[in-house]
Each structure stands twice: as C-alpha cells, then as structure tokens.
Amino acid sequence: MSVRFNRDGATTKNFQTMLPMLAPDSYTVHWKAMGEDGHMMKGSYGFMQH
C-alpha cells in the first residue's frame, strides 16, 4: 500500500494517515522527507501486527 500526500501543501512536522485494519504479519514502512535545508532523507522501519 502506498500513501500519497500533497507536496504543494504547507510544510508540517507531522504527517498522519489512516490505514485499513492490518492482517497479522510483518510489515516494513519506507519513508522519505525533505529537510529544511532541502536535502532528502529516507529510512525504513519494520513492525509486526499480532
């Protein structure tokens, strides 16, 4: 599942979206963000849904 947001919107420190109920499994979130200095940052983290 990919979540999109309006890149032309106002700058915020937080981004929140609602996800459907996840089935029990292991998941990985991949994220990208632009820092105040214009440099791109990215990372990922995993979690398990029980």
Automatic annotation (TrEMBL):
Transmembrane segments: none annotated. Keywords: Copper, Signal. This is Copper resistance protein CopC. The keyword Magnesium does not apply. It comes from the Bacteria. Residues 7-47 form the CopC domain. InterPro entries: CopC_dom (IPR007348), Cu-Rt/internalin_Ig-like (IPR014755), Ig_E-set (IPR014756).
